[in-house]
Amino acid sequence: MIVVNDPGTWAAVYPPLRHAEWHGWTYTDTIFPFFLFLAGVSMALSFSRRRDAGASPRDLARHALVRGALVAAIGLALNVLSYLLLHGERLRFPGVLQRIGVCIAIAGPIVAAGRARAAALAAAVLLGGYAAILSFGPLDPGGSIPARVDRAVFGSHTWKPEFDPEGLLSTLPAAATTLLGAIAGERLRRVAGGVNGNRSLLPRADVSTGRAARELAAAGAAAAAAGWAWGLALPVNKSLWTPSYALLTAGLAALALAAAIGVVDLLGARRWAAPFLWLGRNAIAAFVLSTLGAILLLAVKIDGGGGRRRSLWNAIYRGGFDHFADPRLASLFFALAYLAVWIAACGVLYRRRIFIKI
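RE: above sequence
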C-alpha cells in the first residue's frame, strides 16, 4: 500500500500500480482486500487467545467496536490534516482507515458471538444482499446505488464528486471480505492448533500444518474461481467492491496465505520474510505514519528557483530520482525508497519489542 500510495509523481506510474479505471482489476486492486482478509484471520486467532484468557463474547465484541472506532477516527483525522495542510478542494469523510475500522466493528461482534458459522452466514447475507442492491441501478460511477447513497449521506465530502471508492454501502461487502478471513483463521486454528505470535503463523510445522495449508489453498482456489465466474454476470469492480470482486480477492488472499504457510512454516524459510514481519507487527502504525509523512513532505514548501515554491516531496524526487529515461522507473524507485524508510523504522521498533496496537 505504501508503494502504491507514494509514487514520486502520479504522472508516471506503471499500470499494475494503478487501480483499474472501473470494471476489471490490477495487482493494486488486490492489496486492500488482502489486508482486510488478513485482518479477519488475525481477529479469529486473537479472539481465540482472549477466550482462553477468560474473555466473554461481550468483551470481545466491545474490544472490536472500540478498536474499529479508533481506527476510523485516526483515518478521519488524517483526512482533516491533509485537507488543512494541502488546501484540498473538499474534506473527504470516507477513507481506507475508516473502512478498516467499520469492517472491524461489523465483523468483530459476529465472530465473537458465533465464530466461523456465524461469519459464514453473515458473509453470505452481506454479499447476496449487496448483489441485490446493485441490481436496482446501473453500475457506473454516477448512477450506481452506492454512489447515490454516498452523495446523499456525505454530500460533497467524497473522493470524487460522483462517488467514493470507500463509500458507505460498498463497505458492507468489504466487511464480508473480513468475515471470510475470519473463517479462514478459525479453520487454521482448529486444524493446526493455534498461533505463535513470535516467528511463525502456526506453532508447529507438522502434518496438521500441511493439512491446514492444503485446505486453505483448496478453499482459496474455489472462492477465486467462484468470484471469477460471478464476474461474468456481475463485473469485478474494486470501487463498487462487487461481490464477485470480494470472492475473487478473498480466494487469492487465501492462496497467498497458504503459500506463505508452506514457505515459512513448512519449509522453514524465514529470513527473507523479516521485512514483512517488521511491517506486519506494526501494520496500522506503518500505514498511518507513512501517510502522515507524505502529507508533511507535500505540505513543506521550499525555494524551487525562479521565484517558484515546490514541495519537499517534489524536491527530493526531482533531485534524487528523476534521472531515468523512463520517468515511471524514477517514480517507482522513489516509492521503493520511501517504503525502505518505513521498513527500517518498523525494524527498529521490532528489535526493541515496541508494537503499536489499537
